[in-house]
Amino acid sequence: EEPILVPEEEVQLLIQTLEKASTSLISTNKLIKYEGFWYPASDESLKNILMFQRHFCARDSDLILASHPKTGTTWLKSLLFATVNRNNYLKHDNPLFKNHPHELVYRLENNIYDEVHNHYPRPHHLNELPSPRLFNSHLPYSSLPESISTTKCRILYICRNPLDTLVSLYYFVLNIIKKKKGGEDFQPPSLEDFFEDFYDGRAIHGPYFDNVVEYWKLSLEQPQKVFFMKYEDLKKDPESHVKKLAEFVGVPFTMEEEREGVIQEIIELCSIKKLKELEVNKNGAINKIFDKESYFRKGNVGDGIHYFTPNMVERMNKLTQQKLQGTGLSI
Ligand code: A3P
């Protein structure tokens, strides 16, 4: 029996005090604003965040993949796993063939502290995981537990252009709602309405730009702590990114590995085409909510603008400029 780490009553009391909102996609189950960001208004979800914040002890060797949802987390998980563990398995025996990337890199505020869908390691098992431990989180840097900033653990961050991110998020959440509500008379919420929610920062894990800018600033202040990537750059030149990523996490590719094409093999293995075809990623679910296949959709760059009117694209471009002004970042 594990101790109850954050009492239910405390979570419920806290929820009562938080700002709430409904959105086009989540009208019945409202969102709550916690530490400046929106999350599902469920006891479960908030409790998991609190558990993570209070009980996670980072190690110097931990590698934490941070991102806003739908910016390339799954891709980066597979690349990171394959790079770090490249000498631990025979090629045909890579765990990526038998496990979804989300089963190899655990999500800190969800998989681990999630008491409801738990087939993942429990908090006390975290200490038994071999180093380097690979994790991911969708929380903003300001909400991460203190030990992440006080230890030498490293953060890899990925961002993506806002329109592609929002279209990806829309279809991902739509899938979940359809599964829940089902039926032929189901009227899906519109992408236009979701655009407005996302634009206003009122979507799960939003405001999007706040998440990006926090990590971007940190990556400038502490380049040894945060490695900042863009989905679009990774797509354009995966080789140089995987090389840099390996250097950043302390396992650079040797000349011999480069000559033998090890980097190319990793990129191939982690391509959306390849991962999508694997049986393990086609069937089943990560937990009660997320289907494994829903993490692999199109994987294109710049597709987002085709879903919106020129006026909407223009508005989003302006907002992006405004939010990133003075930061030196463009996405
Ligand atoms: P699209 O919905 O635009 O296709 P996340 O992993 O952060 O949830 O992001 C999911 C997005 O990344 C989806 O984008 C998905 O198709 C894309 N994706 C998943 N695996 C990928 C891979 N191996 N390479 C490139 N893109 C990938």
Molecular structure report:
The chain has 331 residues and is an alpha/beta fold. It has one domain: Rossmann fold, CATH 3.40.50. 46% of the residues lie in helices and 10% in strands. The chain contains 17 helices and eight strands. It has helices at residues 8-17, 43-55, 73-84, 101-104, 108-112, 123-126, 146-150, 162-181, 191-199, 208-221, 231-236, 238-248, 255-260, 262-269, 272-277, 279-282, 310-324, and strands at residues 19-21, 31-34, 37-40, 63-67, 106-107, 134-137, 154-159, 226-230. The chain is globular. The protein starts with 7 loop residues before the first helix and ends in a 7-residue tail after the last helix.
Short description:
Belongs to the sulfotransferase 1 family. The protein is of the alpha/beta class and 331 residues long.
Provide the fold topology.
Blueprint: H1 8-17, E1 19-21, E2 31-34, E3 37-40, H2 43-55, E4 63-67, H3 73-84, H4 101-104, E5 106-107, H5 108-112, H6 123-126, E6 134-137, H7 146-150, E7 154-159, H8 162-181, H9 191-199, H10 208-221, E8 226-230, H11 231-236, H12 238-248, H13 255-260, H14 262-269, H15 272-277, H16 279-282, H17 310-324
Parallel strand pairs: 4-6, 4-7, 5-6, 7-8
Antiparallel strand pairs: 1-2, 2-3
Bound molecules: adenosine-3'-5'-diphosphate.
